[in-house]
Each structure stands twice: as structure tokens, then as C-alpha cells.
Amino acid sequence: METKNILFEITDGIALVTVNRPESLNALNSQVLGELECTLYEIEHDSEAQVVIITGAGEKAFVAGADIKEMAAMTAYEGHRFALQGQRVMLFIEKMTKPVIAAVNGYALGGGLELALACDIIYASENARVGFPEVTLGIIPGFGGTQNLSRLIGPNKARELVFSGRMIPAQKALAWGIVNEVFPRAELAGKVMDLAREIAKNGLLGVGYAKNAIVNGLNMVKEDGFRYESSLFGVLFATEDQKEGMGAFVEKRKAVFKGK
Ligand code: CAA
After folding, report:
1. Does residue 65 line the site of ligand 1, with CB under 6 A?
2. What number does the ligand 1 atom closest to the CA of 136 have?
3. Side by side, which strands form the sheet with 6-11?
4. Which domain holds residue 102?
5. Whether residues 141 and 75 fall in one domain
6. CA distances from 207 to 55, 78, 127, 197, 214 (A)
């Protein structure tokens, strides 16, 4: 599919997705969201892609939020539909069987922070700034931010960030547990790629099941999560990857996973 605002390529099993609207700091309008959803769908069904990276084009921003210029004229009905469209993309990322890493290379605000929070792991550059400025615009986060942030860092810190609308620097986001790691800007892409390659070596099946257990387990009470985990654990014993992984250990060689 031809996409104007989303660039994507797959190299050695790593799918790199770039939100490419730098003149608007990669703001998410309905067209960008539609293209992002189609691209991610394609990647999910492409057996070559093992790990996904999402980043933003240009020097300044990962994604500076949902497109305020598009939202300015929306009716309540359109606003609701727009939130549902954004949430569909975020939920799709969570449901993908492939791990998704956000490379936050600058501003990640509003819908941009929501996009990063939907990913499995967030690496950020030192110049990144994150926040939820929605209340300064008379709205609230609408692409899952109130839910994902409070689950990630707890409701108190989430309330502080959302109620104040303030932006915090990458180091504070690290201290608060919003991002996994912070790197100098010039090193970010390489560090994200190193992590993606390290994950890809482990085979899609085990990593995908682990993602499934973590993401879905978060929506369960603990005992149900344990039950769910043990079912997935059991299913993996019916796979070639489990035979290969354990066989390779016993034979003292490196495992070569096939994802089946
Ligand atoms: N929507 C639409 N356009 C945006 C945008 C956004 N979220 N963020 C930046 N842009 C545009 C600017 O309007 C500007 O375009 P023009 O040159 O045509 O005027 C261009 O990108 C460059 O931006 P600035 O000149 O403002 O750049 P700056 O360096 O001075 O400031 C910034 C950078 C602090 C990030 C500032 O652009 C800003 O505050 N952006 C808005 C951030 C925001 O409020 N995001 C939340 C949106 S609401 C949301 O996301 C709802 C939701 O949860 C679904």
C-alpha cells in the first residue's frame, strides 16, 4: 500500500516505521492514523518482520500529538470517532504478536506519548520531552493515555502529568518509569536497533507469547493471569522452537528459531 505520511522498510527482520510529517512535527491526523494502522497490519502479517520500531521523522519530534488543526473544527460526534480511531491503532499495537519498540527522538506529546505508551518498550533521546498538554486545549488524552499512563506509573504521577499539562524532560520520564532508557540523540537509533536485533534472535514465537501474557495479564486478576501464563507456557511445548531451543542447550550450540 502507498502511504504518504508513513515510511516503512524491513531489513533483516526489523520493520522500521517512521511517522513522516516533519513540517507538522509528525502530528497524527485521521489520514496518518489510517496509514499507520494499514502499515502495522501489513507488518503483522509479513512473516519477514520479527520486531517493529516506530519513530518520527526530522530532528525535533517523535510525534507532537494528535493534529490540533484538524481537531479544532470537530463536532462531539467527530471527536468521539477520532478518539476511537486512535484507540484502535493503539490497541492494535498491543495485540500485535510482534514486539514494538518506540524510538522517541524528540517531543512525544498527547497522542504522540499515547503512541509511545502503546509500544512494548520505549527508548528515548536526551532531547525528548513528554507530556499530555490536552487540558491546555480544553480536552483530555483520547488515544488511551489516561488508561495506559496510570497503569504504567500509577494514578498519582499520571494525575500530576495530565492535570498540569506540563512537559517533562527525558531524564525525568526515565525516573518516573515512563521510558526504559535514555541515550544521546546521535546514539538512539543504534541502541534501538541493537535491542531489536537482540530480541529478533530469540524467535518470534516465544517473544510473541511473552508479550501476549504480559499485555493480556495486565487486564486480569493475578490468579487468572497465572492460569493464562501456564496455558501459553504449555502450548509452546507443542512447537518446533521449544524443541530447537532446549535441544540446542543440551547439545551446547546456538539455537536457530523458525517461529513455529
Ligand atoms: N497538531 C498540529 N500541528 C502541530 C502540532 C499538533 N499537535 N504540533 C506542532 N504542530 C505544527 C505547528 O502548528 C507548526 O506549524 P506551522 O509552521 O504551520 O505553524 C509546526 O508544527 C512546528 O511547530 P512549532 O512552530 O509550534 O514548533 P516549536 O518548536 O515552536 O514548538 C511544540 C514545539 C512545543 C511541540 C509545539 O508545536 C506544541 O506545543 N505543539 C502542540 C503539542 C500538543 O498540544 N499536543 C497535544 C495535542 S492534543 C492530543 O494529542 C489529543 C489526544 O490525546 C488524542
Report:
1. yes
2. 44
3. 6-11, 14-19, 51-56, 100-104, 121-125, 181-183
4. 6-200
5. yes
6. 21, 37, 30, 13, 11
pLDDT tens digits in sequence order for the chain, 260 residues long? 788 999 999 999 999 999 999 999 999 999 999 999 999 999 999 999 999 999 999 999 999 999 999 999 999 999 999 999 999 999 999 999 999 999 999 999 999 999 999 999 999 999 999 999 999 999 999 999 999 999 999 999 999 999 999 999 999 999 999 999 999 999 999 999 999 999 999 978 999 999 999 999 999 999 999 999 999 999 999 999 999 999 999 999 999 999 89
Known catalytic membership, residue 134: yes
* Interval between CA 112 and ligand 1 midpoint (Å): 11
Does residue 109 share a domain with residue 51? yes
| 118 inside domain | yes
Q: Which three cell numbers stand for residue 192?
A: 534501538
Are the C-beta atoms of 181 and 149 separated by less than 8 Å?
no
Whether 260 maps to a domain, the answer reads no
Taking the CA of residue 82 as reference, the ligand 1 atom at the shortest distance is 54
Among positive and negative, which fits the CA dihedral 51, 44, 5, 141? negative
Residue 259: inside a domain, yes or no?
A: no
ipTM field: 0.99
pTM confidence score: 0.97
Q: Which amino acid is at 35?
A: E
